[in-house]
Specification:
There is one protein chain. Helix 2 crosses helix 3 and helix 8 crosses helix 9. The chain has a five-stranded mixed barrel. The longest helix is centred in the middle third of the chain and has 18 residues. The chain is of the alpha+beta class. Keywords: Cytoplasm, DNA damage, DNA recombination, DNA repair, DNA-binding. It comes from Sphingobacterium thermophilum. InterPro entries: DNA_helicase_Holl-junc_RuvA_I, Hlx-hairpin-Hlx_DNA-bd_motif, NA-bd_OB-fold, RuvA, RuvA_2-like, RuvA_C, RuvA_C_sf.
Length: about 190
Amino acid sequence: MYDYFNGKLVFKAPTHVILEVDGIGYHIHISLTTYSQIKDQENCKLYVSFQVREDAHTLYGFATESERHLFNHLISVSGIGPNTGRMMLSSSTPEELHTAIVNGQVALIQKIKGIGPKTAQRLILELQDKLKKQGDDVLLPLPVAKQSVPEEALAALVMLGFPKNQVEKVLSAIVQAEPNLTVEQMIKLALKKL
């Protein structure tokens, strides 16, 4: 239905943005990878995936067409919904995920929150051949974000469904051990410990 939205970023968070297009503000869920690419921009173009359920119509936005393409592949697998797909693209880069699926690295995929051994195997079984046919050059390297704050990481993890007090404990331990991490690195470390 929608291919992309191009407009002004009215609000940015690690999990969602509000993009104003011709006077209409769209609430669009994003991955951490997309956030790292658009967080310094005032205006941007987001490629969208419009997901319709009985109780909700939800937009998921991506900075690149290749990330959206991988997201659509992920959610085509039984047992992986849009939120899990977004979690997967937030836990590792599209390149890492693509490589793990193509190479059949079950253990690597299993490390992502919400993905058990059966789901990881099903994901590889259903997507390995499709992604191999596309080739490795489908996903281009993405820039790494420069700065962040623990509050952004906390907000993102709470929005992903983790209990606030548990997230605060994990983040405080991470900040004490490594105080100079970006929000993306902090969230990825926290996802491994939650």
